[in-house]
Amino acid sequence: MDVTRRDFLAGSLAVPVVGRPALQVPSDLSYLSLTDAAALIKALRLSPVELTQALLDRIDRLDGKVGAFITVTREAALRSAREAEREIAAGRYRGPLHGIPFGVKDTHYTKGIRTTANTPVLVDFMPDFDATVVARLTRAGAVLVGKTNLPEFSFGSAGGGGAFPDAHNPWNVARTPGGSSSGSAAALAAGLLTVATGGDTSGSIRNPATFCGVVGLKPTYGRVSRHGIVVISWSLDHVGPMSRTVADNATLLNAIAGRDPADDTSSDLPVPDYTRALRRGVRGLRAGIPKPAQFDGYHRDVMRAFEESLAVFRKLGAIVKEVDLPPTSDVIDEVQQIVRIAEAASYHETFLATKAERYATTTTVRRDLESGSLVTAVQYLRAQKVRARFVHDLTAMFRTLDVFLTPGMPAPAGEPVDVKQPFRRMFNVCGFPALVLPNGFSTTPADLPIGLQIAAKPFDEETIYAAAQAFESATEWHTQHPNL
Fold it and tell me: pLDDT for 213-237, tens place per residue?
């Protein structure tokens, strides 16, 4: 059936649901969740075109200040939105991502759309296929709005440096948004996207999610395909969902998870419906936390927010207890760095031989890669041996735990910090899943987001989502947005 856009927006073809209140379309669509937008679109009360156009208009107004995007796919996005509108109006609704605007980190291959990794080395690179993650989202009917910013080749946790201007933190544009998935986190915080994807090798989803006050999951290694992603480290890289709510994050993971024949490291374990876990609650949940000595050097506002978060979990019925970390955790950051730069140097070998002069002079990427080429086989294998021991010991620790809770980052965005254990890289080394969500704001400096990290054993993202949803439902941090 062919209908006019006016019919679609008026919802004149929607079938009323008995006992359910009428869905209302907010006047401002910028912070509409995926969950609510999908319900409105399915009910023919919100057009994908209207939602996409609203976000494109907001990008026009605000991205000059935020710098979240390297490429905005305006015309293609509107074409996809119109196609989604026609399909849905004709009764061919594909599911909760149909007509939903999304962005991807500019390391994700996009057919016919430049994929730069924010480096002069790839500034004109035009892939001839989509990354598996992108292909799965577009098959679900989602609307690609653009490619988001990052530091050159995803190197760096501060989110700066490369072929294009840096992204900025929407909560305070003088502050870093974190890295390397800086643009995805900044776009979500600024209301420029509904959902996004990121990449995480050293905490690069969780770091910017913390600094920008959004939700970011590093899934279990192998849960999401890395095919068509610009590599840093083949054994540490993860691709994951980023969003403003836990429910949106679970819905996004549903779409991108699963076996991919093009990625031989992807798992063939069945993919559950992660949204079902959102109703589980946390009564009786065994939550481990580090002992106080592990928090030496942490910002006082981070620790205040962490203690308040633990009180919320206890009130909800979780059992919180201190645990000992494996002895190898003291050196796991060094292990991660050795593995990362050695594997990165291998990937970049051809670039260094043919395009070394094209690396950005404003970053240390070329220097780091050349250092990685000096790592010996003995050093690399020794690091892998320690890594295997750490995974073994961490697996044993999780036999008595359901989740492991830590602050998302040791300090708010841009604050100096000198800590023993930042609790990020350890989950890249072991490949266990870990999610960050908002759990407060700093007072000194004022009004910068703080995050809570929830980790679990491999392929147990469901328990993470259950705990995160229970916490989010009991707090209101996720409802607050920057004043841009």
Answer: 999 999 999 999 999 999 999 999 9
pLDDT tens, position by position, 261-317: 999 999 999 999 999 999 999 999 999 999 999 999 999 999 999 999 999 999 999
Active-site residue identified among 80, 180, 181, 225 = 180
373 is known as an active-site residue:
no
**DSSP run (H or E) holding 320:** strand 319-323
How many domains does the chain contain in total? 1
Residue 217 lies in a domain: yes
Residue 1 has a pLDDT of 31
8-state DSSP, 271: P
Domain hosting residue 449, numbered range: 5-14+28-330+387-479
Helix (H, G, I), strand (E, B) or coil at 124: coil
SS (H, E, C) 377-422: HHHHHHHHHHHHHHHHHHHHHHHHCCEEEEECCCCCCCCCCCCCCC
Q: Give the chain's radius of gyration (CA, Å).
A: 22
Burial call 445-457: b when 16+ CB within 10 Å, e when fewer:
eeebbbbbbbbbb
CATH number, position 233: 3.90.1300.10
Q: Which residues are CB-neighbours of 376 under 8 A, at least 6 positions away?
A: none
Q: SS3 for 317? A: coil
- Please name every residue paired with 435 in a beta bridge, in sequence order, or none if there are none: 217, 454
Is 369 within a domain?
A: no
Query: Which parts of the chain register pLDDT below 70?
Result: 1-22
Q: Is residue 343 part of a domain?
A: no
Element (H, E) at 120: none
pLDDT at 158: 79
Sign of the CA dihedral with 129 first, then 134, 135, and 141 last: negative
In the residue annotation, 309 being an active-site residue is answered as no
In a domain, 335, yes or no: no
204 noted as active-site residue: yes
Catalytic residue among 204, 225, 233, 267: 204
- Which distant-in-sequence residues (6+ apart) come within 8 Å of 77 by Cβ? 52, 56, 101, 143, 144, 145, 146
The catalytically annotated residue of 105, 147, 218, 457 is 105
**Distance from C-alpha of 468 to C-alpha of 473, rounded to nearest angstrom:** 8
What single-letter DSSP state applies at residue 373? T
Q: What is the pTM of this model?
A: 0.96
- Sign (positive/negative) of CA torsion 222, 239, 100, 24? positive
What 3-state class would DSSP assign to 139? helix
